[in-house]
Amino acid sequence: RYDRFMHCFDHVSNRIDEIYKALARNQSAQAFLGPENPEEPYLDGVNYNCVAPGKRFRPMDNLSGGEKTVAALALLFAIHSYQPAPFFVLDEIDAALDNTNIGKVAAYIREQAEINFQCIVISLKEEFYNRSDALIGIYPEQGDCIISNVLTLDLTEYTDPYVHEEEDSP
Amino acid sequence: RYDRFMHCFDHVSNRIDEIYKALARNQSAQAFLGPENPEEPYLDGVNYNCVAPGKRFRPMDNLSGGEKTVAALALLFAIHSYQPAPFFVLDEIDAALDNTNIGKVAAYIREQAEINFQCIVISLKEEFYNRSDALIGIYPEQGDCIISNVLTLDLTEYTDPYVHEEEDSP
Amino acid sequence: GHLKYIEVDNFKSYRGKQKIGPFKKFSAIIGPNGSGKSNLMDAISFVLGEKTSNLRVKRLSDLIHGAPIGQPAASRASVSAIYTDAETKKETVFTRIISGSSSDHKINGKGVSSQDYNAELEKIGVLVKSKNFLVFQGTVESIAMKNAKERTAMFEEIS
Amino acid sequence: GHLKYIEVDNFKSYRGKQKIGPFKKFSAIIGPNGSGKSNLMDAISFVLGEKTSNLRVKRLSDLIHGAPIGQPAASRASVSAIYTDAETKKETVFTRIISGSSSDHKINGKGVSSQDYNAELEKIGVLVKSKNFLVFQGTVESIAMKNAKERTAMFEEIS
Ligand SMILES: Nc1ncnc2c1ncn2[C@@H]1O[C@H](COP(=O)(O)OP(=O)(O)OP(=O)(O)O)[C@@H](O)[C@H]1O
Ligand SMILES: Nc1ncnc2c1ncn2[C@@H]1O[C@H](COP(=O)(O)OP(=O)(O)OP(=O)(O)O)[C@@H](O)[C@H]1O
Ligand SMILES: [Mg+2]
Ligand SMILES: [Mg+2]
Fold it and tell me: Are C75 and C28 spatial neighbours (Cβ–Cβ below 8 Å)?
């Protein structure tokens, strides 16, 4: 039990800092996981702390809405690296993100989708979904109750507007 | 106690349908409040139901994220009509709204701000804040901890892009 | 491997049979408020074994098209997920069917028990119980804001 | 009437004295994630009497600039709201000051008790207890999703 727990914990805590740096596109970002009780970690809690780019260490509840979303995605992707599900389904995860962070998160998902996992997102923001390979458009039809109809558009047939995108300079 | 409660309740429930229609820019939208126990309403609960434009009556927990936001704003503004605070402060209420609903909610706030109440909103979406009279821009400065700096821009000095906007045809 | 198609049959706001896809490496579901985007996520979550309370309904039968307004379009509804293996390119069809107050499971058209169904899903890395690949609307921030004990419990489930 | 200016002094991420405004009929606060937008809403809520738990801090002293990283910029912080009456155009300055673990109140520069302060706010229609004019980040949907009993309680408070 101790071994399995530590094996998982070590894997995720080694990966989380590098994933957070990649999501924030900034080497000064830091993320770390630390057990409250290092001898028997499964008996107590596990702390999670993120230092946003350009800021100092402070408690997690001091983060703003957008900063919490980025911290959450780093943890989500770090856990996935230990136990890789074949795909993600993410429903409006961009709601609290400003356009800069939308660009960073979408670029990260775009990179990972090539090599690591399939990603299905639901989004209202063009800045987010214009980086995908395919759009699944849902449009409502009136009836006694709403009827959902579906259109699919393969974006890979069009030239990619971001193909010349330079790596964001952190 | 009964009188005061009923006076407040009657006022709000009379207004809510008209406010919901105005927010949704659609006469087929309906909103109503109903006491579970009409003789002594303060002893039991008060039900709230909204019928989104083009849909039929269904339980409130069936609403989508965006539909819930519009229903919530209708109730908020209906309560305000009974007990008018001089201003509102609304922090990213547009997070779950699509661009059409952002346009409707921003136009409603714009109209009401002229006659009824002052409104201060926090938003990340240009489609929402470009209808305001003034922008308060907050930008961070690096330091030991983040330092917020403020810039103010009076938009009334520029021509209003929406001044020729027709009433949305429902 | 990856998810190729989804087929819904009278599931929530989707009336009748509809084939949705193909899903690419990075696909985006878009559409106006209330059009049925989260319902599509509910369909994917349902076919992978997600429990009713996370599908925004109280009973399985509320998932049938028209049920919330008292006019269910049929007595059954179903969702199928067509999954393609990365190496062998072999397709597996996972199907979950609502009939009455319980659900049946099929793999490639053949009825199986829910244990066998979940075992097959685990083989491809889909562990719905630990749910580290589904993020429902409005819940992303809460992943970072769990308290220390909840986080330990999360690690216990995954390891 | 309406809110004309806000003056913050070492409040959360606002260092030193800053005058923010003027606020028009419909003003929008914009800026990147983590820049301090919600902190400005916290400043407005604080000066109107909002309690600490709704300002995302555990203790009043955490509101002082630099406190969360153990380097408070000062031992005091304050927020003033300049309010203009619609008819008389008379300005009233409401000020709330953090000193140690309690807060002091002033109206037009004169110290008053918190009861008098709240009474004066009620005269202009600001009833923080019923909070029907402040919507904090992430809470808008919950206004519609209260259960029937909670809604009755809301009406009780307002009437
Ligand atoms: N069983 C059902 N039969 C028919 N319609 C249903 C059923 N269950 C839910 N609905 C309807 O589906 C609609 C909600 O769809 P959904 O939550 O997927 O919207 P959405 O596209 O995610 O919107 P948003 O962008 O606002 O989140 C609601 O209007 C609801 O009434
Ligand atoms: N007392 C304080 N002194 C200095 N900085 C503080 C203090 N309290 C909070 N902060 C910092 O202020 C920042 C948060 O600001 P705020 O929540 O206002 O962001 P925001 O502009 O609303 O962002 P978002 O768009 O993501 O919601 C955090 O980075 C936090 O660390
Ligand atoms: Mg949705
Ligand atoms: Mg904020």
Answer: no
Would you place residue A17 in the very low, low, confident or very high pLDDT band (cuts 50, 70, 90)?
very high
Widest distance between CA atoms in chain C: 46
Handedness of CA B125, A88, C93, C45 (dihedral sign): negative
Cα angle for residues B64, B67, B72 (degrees, 5° grid): 120
In the stretch 13-32 of chain B, residues with CB closer than 8 A to chain D read none
How many beta carbons lie within 10 A of that of residue B74, not counting itself?
A: 27
User: What distance in Å separates the CA atoms of residue A124 and residue C31, rounded to the nearest whole number?
Assistant: 7
Residue with token string 């596990």: A46
Sheet harboring A87-91: ordered strands across?
A147-154, A134-141, C26-30, A118-122, A87-91, C134-135
How do beta strands C110-112 and D14-20 pair? unpaired
With vertex at residue A86, the alpha carbon angle to CA A83 and CA A88, rounded to the nearest 5 degrees, is 95
Give the one of B65, B85, B154 whose C-beta lies nearest to D133's C-beta. B85
Closest CA to C48 of C134, C109, C143, C137: C134
Please state, in angstroms and rounded to a whole number, the distance separating the CA atoms of residues D75 and B72. 40
SS3 (DSSP) at D56: coil
Give SS3 for D4: strand
Report the atom number in ligand 2 closest to the C-alpha of B148: 12
Residue D90, Cβ neighbours under 10 Å: how many?
10
Cα distances (angstroms) measured from residue D93 to each of C148, D80, D96, D117, D121: 44, 6, 10, 11, 11
Residue D23 has pLDDT above 80, yes or no: yes
What's the CA gap between B76 and D144, in Å, rounded? 9
- Using a 6 Å cutoff on CB, does residue C15 contact ligand 1? no
- Write the burial class of residue D10 (CB in 10 Å: 0-12 exposed, 13-18 middle, 19+ buried): buried
Per-residue model confidence as pLDDT tens for chain C (159 residues): 999 999 999 999 999 999 999 999 999 999 999 999 999 999 999 999 999 999 999 999 999 999 988 899 999 999 999 999 999 999 999 999 998 889 999 999 999 999 999 999 999 999 878 778 999 999 999 999 998 999 998 888 887
Distances (CA, A) of B163 to A119, B110, B111, D52: 42, 11, 12, 42
Token pair belonging to A12: 């995720």
Instruction: Name which residue sits closest to atom 1 of ligand 1, judged by CA.
Output: C12
Residue A51 CA to residue A63 CA, distance in Å, equals 9
What CA–CA distance (Å, rounded) separates A111 from C149? 33
Ligand 2 atom with least separation from CA of D31 = 21
d(CA D121, CA B117): 16
Mean pLDDT of A24-31: 93
Tokens 């009455």 belong to C100
| CA distance to partner chain B, nearest, from residue A136 (Å) | 16
